[in-house]
Amino acid sequence: MENKLRKVIIIGSGPAGYTAAIYLGRAGYKPLVIAGALTPGGQLMNTTEVENYPGFPEGILGPDLMESMQKQAEKFGAEVLLNDVTSVDFKSAVKLVTTDDGITYGSDAVIVSTGSQVRKLGVPGELEYSGRGVSYCATCDGFFFRGKPITVVGGGDSAFEEALFLTRFGSSVTLIHRRNEFRASKIMVDRAKENEKIKFITNSVVDEVHGNDVEATSLTVRNVITGETQEVESAGLFVAIGHTPATKFLNGQLKLNEDGTIVVDGATTRTSVEGVFAAGDVVDNMYRQAISAAGMGCRAALDAQTYLNEKYS
């Protein structure tokens, strides 16, 4: 076990984790932020222009916003560790958190802000062509499909944002959605419909990804009402159908809702275990916005401060 006992550990980063770190850092707690090994900064690291985060009238790139938040947290004394948490032990007063390098850290309080993970289609060919035509990150991989036909699966804001972004690269972008109506905001739908590069296939799902020995080339798309299928040319398939809360590492130690999000006490961020708090998309299955996650990160920090003040008063 790492021999220095922390006052508070934040598991995860993103707007919730970094905001919590800023508040706790300014309060003098010097939090340890275990930000993740692959995508520190959360989903915004895979987001292009963020237009609705207050304070940026011209918008800001998601990675730039997260980098600024991290620097601000570090300015106030937060220590950011680029590792993944593999297990936790919340059974005693000292909370134990073990990372993928085998080190266990102890703390008086823990904030969980691990966000969520992308959902996959689960169809034949998806795994085989992952990284060779199937992607879950438009900003990461869009460039590779310049001048080629691209498809996007989904009906929410994320799917529409990816479709609009991918028009910069693809010869065409086809958005496939299982329903006739979209969950995306009206402004996003209107922008997509006004873009001559984007076309829509509704009431339909992807049944299979096809390709050759090198890359994906097409999709089998089935109409869920008629059952009819069609082959759709696609060099790049971008899947944007939602996310699953990242709670597996908790191993059942916190109470969860049916959808996998962490249960919190009313408007607070207190979980089912005293001294453990949760914030961001790992809790929120409704709003799922950067600004709401940041607000919840603030609340988690204040809840943790209250807990620590009472513990040591």
Mean pLDDT score: 93
Major β-sheet annotation: 7 strands, mixed
Number of helices: 6
Percent in strands? 25-35%
Catalytic activity: [thioredoxin]-dithiol + NADP(+) = [thioredoxin]-disulfide + NADPH + H(+)
Keywords: Disulfide bond, FAD, Flavoprotein, NADP, Oxidoreductase, Redox-active center
GO molecular function, one term: thioredoxin-disulfide reductase (NADPH) activity
Family: Belongs to the class-II pyridine nucleotide-disulfide oxidoreductase family.
Nutshell version of this structure?
By secondary structure, this protein is α/β, with parallel strands linked by helices. The chain has helices spanning 14-26, 62-75, 138-141, 157-166, 186-194, 290-312, and strands at residues 6-11, 32-34, 49-50, 60-61, 79-81, 85-89, 95-99, 104-112, 116-118, 134-135, 149-153, 172-176, 198-201, 204-211, 216-223, 229-233, 236-239, 243-245, 276-278.
Distinctive features:
single chain; 313 residues; 6 helices; FAD; redox-active center; thioredoxin-disulfide reductase (NADPH) activity
How are the elements arranged and paired?
Elements: E1 6-11, H1 14-26, E2 32-34, E3 49-50, E4 60-61, H2 62-75, E5 79-81, E6 85-89, E7 95-99, E8 104-112, E9 116-118, E10 134-135, H3 138-141, E11 149-153, H4 157-166, E12 172-176, H5 186-194, E13 198-201, E14 204-211, E15 216-223, E16 229-233, E17 236-239, E18 243-245, E19 276-278, H6 290-312
Parallel strand pairs: 1-2, 1-8, 2-5, 8-19, 10-17, 11-12, 11-17, 12-13
Antiparallel strand pairs: 3-4, 6-7, 7-8, 9-18, 14-15, 15-16
